[in-house]
């Protein structure tokens, strides 16, 4: 049996379970529910947040602090969540941290993943806090710094994605569950056990642009395998079950879906043998595997759909972002990642989340171990001076509007 240790629960350890990094949100709005708590107002500094696992911070960023080589993106924002319940929003038009607050009003939360509407302003955060009245979905209003009452879930949640309407959240579980949450009524429905295995761990989910399918990634175990499940929505029925790897050291940990919804790109972090496997949607046929090296933890696609950017931040990976030409579709024998971009300023980064600007010119990385937000110019390959956030940032969403 493969031993699974959830390193996000331990601040001093160095391997990250996931990254479902949000390349884009879904349209619509999330109802944060009337029972809200007013937290910190918008500000030009990073404020202190409840830090139950002793995350570093607070780290102050002066208003107007320039990022550097990365061009500013008018009207766009980076929404970020930390594993201690810290939430931040960075205005990419002037490169300022404009608000920060904590979701750690009672009960304590342990955020894992984040999904945000494309217009920004609203989102949902998975809270995974066994034994602390956790296991819930937490609505967040970024525009007003309001946190809605947690929506209880009947299982230990791991990943979340919003449907195209922004009205429903689909949540995957630590023991093979998948559920739909109506964000307006706060009701949990379509609970399915889509993988019946005690080793199942559904640690990433993405929804096709038309909302008809979800691709759910399982990091497996000897009995479960390392696989991606293609699920028909809204029924929640599994229609394809694709093995990513038979290697017990395999670790599928992220997925992105092409703009036309025909291909899912599944990242396998492995142990020094990182790959991307393309899968057809809805059939689940595997295409030629792409080698990206190191320990990839997150993937995001360019707005034109021609390039995948992989955050290659596992042990020995070298703090790299690997561009991959995906314009050829499923089958290009011998295809591999392009010349990688090295990011950071000399510290030992651990890249486990990535977002791409709407114009495709910039990437934004999160370094969980060092609490950093790192901008990368995709045209020049130059990364800028990181912004110190602290709080073990684990998920990012780049949105248009605030």
Any key phrases for this structure?
30 strands; mainly beta; Methylamine Dehydrogenase, Chain H; 402 residues; 41% strand; 4-stranded antiparallel β-sheet; 6-stranded antiparallel β-sheet
Summarize the topology:
Layout lengths: L35 E3 L37 E7 L3 E6 L4 E7 L8 E6 L5 E6 L8 E6 L4 E3 L2 E2 L4 E6 L5 E6 L3 E6 L4 E7 L8 E6 L5 E6 L7 E7 L4 E9 L6 E6 L5 E6 L6 E6 L9 E2 L6 E4 L5 E6 L7 E6 L15 E2 L8 E6 L5 E6 L4 E6 L9 E2 L4 E8 L2
Antiparallel strand pairs: 1-8, 2-3, 2-30, 3-4, 5-6, 6-7, 7-8, 7-9, 10-11, 11-12, 12-13, 14-15, 15-16, 16-17, 18-19, 19-20, 20-21, 22-23, 23-24, 24-25, 26-27, 27-28, 28-29
In short:
Helix content is about 0%, strand content about 40%. It has about 400 residues and is mostly beta strands.
- The separation of the N and C termini measures 45 Å
How many β-strands, per DSSP? 30
Strand content: 35-45%
| Low-confidence runs | 1-68
Q: Mean pLDDT, nearest integer?
A: 74
Q: Write the CATH fold name of the domain at 18-40 and 106-355.
A: Methylamine Dehydrogenase, Chain H
Structural class: mainly beta
Q: Quick one: biggest sheet?
A: 6 strands, antiparallel
Any idea what the CATH superfamily of the domain at 18-40 and 106-355 is called? YVTN repeat-like/Quinoprotein amine dehydrogenase
Compressed to H and E, one letter per element, the order equals: EEEEEEEEEEEEEEEEEEEEEEEEEEEEEE
The outline comes out as globular
